[in-house]
Every structure is written in C-alpha cells, then in structure tokens.
TrEMBL record:
It comes from Nonomuraea diastatica. The keyword Protease applies. The keyword Hydrolase applies. Pfam families: Peptidase_S66, Peptidase_S66C. Belongs to the peptidase S66 family. This is LD-carboxypeptidase. The active site is at 140 (nucleophile), 263 (charge relay system), 332 (charge relay system).
Amino acid sequence: MRGSVVGGPAQGQERRGRRGHLQGSIVKRVLPPALRPGDTIGVLSPSSDEAARYPRRRLRAAGFLRDHGYQVRFAPSACSTGDYTAGSPEERAEDLHRLFADPSVTAIVTAIGGNNSNQLLDLLDFDLIAANPKLLIGYSDVTALLTAIWWRTGLGVVMGPQLLPQFGEYGGCLDYTMRAWRRTLENPAPAELIDASPAWTDEFLPWDSADDRARATHANAGPWALRPGRATGPLYGANLTTLLRLAGTPYWPDLTGHLLLLESSLETTPSQLDAELTQLRQTGLLNTISAIGFGRFGHERRLNRPAVLEPVLNRALTGFGGPVVCGLDIGHTDPMFSVPYGLTADIAGEPGRPVTVTFVDGAVR
C-alpha cells in the first residue's frame, strides 16, 4: 500500500539506513490512505500498560469503534503489563512493525501515552514504515513516536484521540472529537474551518470504578489571541514535555515555517510551563516557527485564566514575534480536534475577531 507524495518546502536531506541510525530529515509529505467504515484499526500500546490494567475501559472503547463500523485488532503486546510499560521496548517496536506491515490494517490508534514511547525510537525500521504508509494517531507521550516517524519518513501522522481516554468515554467518544476525526481522517477534502467546541471537560473519573457517568463540563469561550496576527504553514502538534525529551537527539525536528500547536498535561503548573517554554526558546526553535497555539490546561492549575497565563507566556516567549493563540481544542482536555502533521493550515487571531484555525489542504488521500 503506497501513500501519496505531496510537494512542499524542503526540510533537509533524507538518508535511510539501518534502524535508529537515520540522519537528515523529510523532503516530501506522504499522505496516508483515508480511513473508511469497515476498515481495521490496529491498537498499539507504545508506552503505558493501562490497556491491560483497565479492561472495562478497553472493551468499552473497542465496542464503540466497532459500533461505528470499524474492525479493531489489538497488537500482541497491547494488553501486556509490567512495571509500567506494555512489554519490553523490543516487543512494543515489533508490535508497531507488525501493524504497519499488515495490509489489512488501515490505521493505528495508540491505547494511551505514558512516559516511555521514546524507548522505541532507536528500534524503528523506518524503511518498513515508509513502505507501508498509514495513519498513526495519538497524543501526549506518543509525540515522541509521531515526531520520529514523521521526521524520518514524511508520513502524515496525526495528533488525535486515543483508545482509552477518548473512545472509552462513558456514553461513547464525545461528539465533537468524533466529528473532527471523521471530517479529517475519512475525507480527502480539506476540513476547512475548525470550529470551537461548545463545552469542555477535564474531570477525571477513576477508570473501571467510577467512570460510569458523563463528566461535568465547562462552557467553552473559544480560543483567544495573546498576540494577534495571522500565519499560514504546515502544522506540527506536540506535547511540550515530550517534545523537549527529543532535544539533542537525532529525532529533533526542524520546524522552519511551521505552526506549532502545543499541549500539556493536566498537572502542569505555571512554573513548570515557564521552565519548559524557556528551554524551548533556548533550543532556538522559536526562531524558526511562524505561530504558536496552546491547548487548554487543567482547570485546577488556573493556567486557563489570562491573568495567570499571559505573564508566563510573555516572559517565556521573549523574542518570538509571531501570533500566539490559546485555548485550542487539543490535548489532555476533551473534546479535541485531530492535528495532521505537515498539513497546511491558517491561524488567524485578528484584533476584535474570533481566533480561527483553517485546514487548507487534506490529511489523507
């Protein structure tokens, strides 16, 4: 199964070699095939073993996907458990290779993040992955995996919903998340304007013991511009903490001209955000990107309040002159829209007007 190659600005020279020893970067964006009802979704646990620890949540999520017309296939180690990961790094990397090599699997959804997806990077067979382009979807710690594969193969991976947190929701995946998923991943046409969700939640109900009701929600005022402006460029979405774990490695991407969308865990504090953004600035990355967008933060940490967030961002983003928008529907709060890597998008935060995110081209072929 071959993907469609889309031209774009060169990002370096690609040199393929043995596993974990590639140098250089992508030149062309490769579109994966669209996901259709009836297709098989492979489930991968690249880090945490929570798919094994929460069987009710796992079965509910798989049932939801099946009820919506998909077939679901778990990788051999996806439901394994250990001290904190779903099998060894070698087992998890082999799971990923099996799913990519299997022609009956159209898309791969990660079960959940964790802390250890970066253990797989030096074990990846990028030639195998490039020869079998397909959707790979996840967020949080999966940023490490998404970034390495995108950077080394050009494959249009996606920051988007995962099996346990989103598809295992009581009552089913939230409607906004599911509509955005289908509009972006099942349709080669551009998704165009990404509307804001009417409400959001970060309430955590302990899985398999108390997640038997709908979660409480907050009204969503929509995204807002800290620094007004407009920028168009390829998208790149990341969990900030995980992205920084790639600094100094061969998997650190060149994001020249990109629109950088960042999300953080619900536990992120103002001081932690300040420290991480300061490190990001010190890498020099902010000198190359065109715009920054932030997802919502955890309600209890107060970072969604402009009076708390603005001083942090103004200090940490010193020297960055592009647009900065906040409160996007991405990351650890729900619902979320899907963010395809490399897709051309437009972010506009003009004074006196609502912030808009528009997908200019499609994510799949």
